């Protein structure tokens, strides 16, 4: 394994662990007999999946593709935000970190559109705007059900 791949390993491992925590919370919601941690993985299942797991992986993929140091802020901020929730930290801190991660991702998508001004780049940018909009609403105090559509639009427009 080369040094570059090794330097990315903590972010990949973070994404995988955040996925485990999110799924664990979902299984707890389904009343599986699992240990219930102090952190509220049940309530934060959605943000852990959409902003944590997918935010880290998609940000990591874009950072590797663009090869610009500033693009690494996306997976890093999303990892820090997700870990804040996974470890039971303050909600406002985690929300702010995830909002900043999604805001940086808008910058990444603008950069990608400038490099490749095509419809797929514009669709990805629209997904990024949906994500930052949902996270901004969360930061303003909106409840998860009101944010779900923005998070879903981010995933659909970015991945599909």
Could you list some keywords that capture this structure?
single chain; 160 residues; mainly alpha; 78% helix
Topology:
Blueprint: H1 3-29, H2 45-66, H3 73-86, H4 91-115, H5 119-139, H6 144-159
Helix pairs in contact: 1-2, 1-3, 2-3, 2-4, 2-6, 3-4, 4-5, 5-6
Descriptive account of the structure:
The chain is mostly helical. It has helices at 3-29, 45-66, 73-86, 91-115, 119-139, 144-159. Helix 1 runs antiparallel to helix 2, helix 2 (45-66) packs antiparallel against helix 3 and helix 4 packs antiparallel against helix 5. The protein is globular.
The low-confidence runs, each spanning 5 or more residues with pLDDT under 50, are none
How does the major sheet shape up? Answer: none
Structural class: mainly alpha
Q: Give the number of helices.
A: 6
